[in-house]
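Hey all, quick one. A colleague (J.T.) asked me to put the FE2/S2 (inorganic) cluster job into the tracker so the inputs and the structure tokens live in one place instead of scattered across chat threads. No bug as far as I know, just bookkeeping. Sequence used:
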Amino acid sequence: MNTEIPFEEFLNQHDEEAWSATLATLLRSIHEVERTATQIWFAFYPLSLFRALQQSEDRDKLVRQLLLQGDYELKDQIDRSHKFLYGHRFWPQVKAAVEQHAGSFNQTSRNSLADQILAVAHNAAQAARKDDSLLIGITAVAFMTVQQAGLTAFKSAPGTIGIDDKHAKKSPEQILRERAKVDSQGLLGFLKTVNKQFTVTHDENDDKAKYKLNDGQDLAWGAANDRARDWVAIDSRRMEGPIPVECRSASCGTCWVGVLSGADRLNDVAAREGKKIKEFGYIDTAEPKPLIRLACQAQAQGAVSVVIPPWNGQFGKHLRALKEEAQALLADQPQTDRRANEAVN
Ligand code: FES
């Protein structure tokens, strides 16, 4: 008997809102080192966009319409989309625990999505001999990956860790200490009012993935001076440094980043950035220092650590229109039912 399909069916009963509620529940139990990273990952791989593409009659046309570029599909990056999460180092144990859960999934189980994630994270944590709090975020990521990529593809992935031993051995406390560091401005640096320089880290698992920028420069401006590598060879969108950019004026959405640490060391979101980032579909919040920013608008006032998503697009308006359409259909439903009943009587 195939017991795997019911697990996928169970996952598919959950939409973006259900996942948001699940994440809100889980965040309380997720380790500090992982809390922001988990939220960034879920912003990078929105279920509503996946579903819009899946249900589209002409997928290629929609991809063009939404200006999607890069790796936006989880099925193509099952083992690596979450390299920036601390829990990535436990991916083999998490993957095995999720597969085991899917294989023995009890269709009649009334356990909520959050409870199932907590239970699977606990099993994986026991296998890894770590605290549950370090594996809850990555387990939630694994569940969403199954939902978007399908269980067959998930199981087919090799389940490898994509970071080296040196970084894999770092403790959560070590990483938190590194994130809290402020850039020394040298002797008497506290007197400096000009020429202050700050460090931007764009991959915490790579010691060379850092660049400097001057006080008040935006993240994309600073990145353009980083010629340490052939960035285009790594990602064709990276024409000027590690962060992909095009317009530099909050018009294209190419330069979005997740802010792992130092969100409070960036300027407040200005009106244009706030409006455009919502239109692009990356985040919908009124927070002045959110975890997703446009690098061409976010100006550093201290050291920050960011994550660069492997894709970009403009899908916010489209998803909102789909949602409104679905709500209108739902609102019409009782009237239709009433009319049908009246006809019968
Ligand atoms: S480069 Fe176009 S929005 Fe930032």
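Adding what we noticed when we looked at it: Residues 316-344 form the longest helix (29 residues). The two ends are 46 Å apart (CA to CA).
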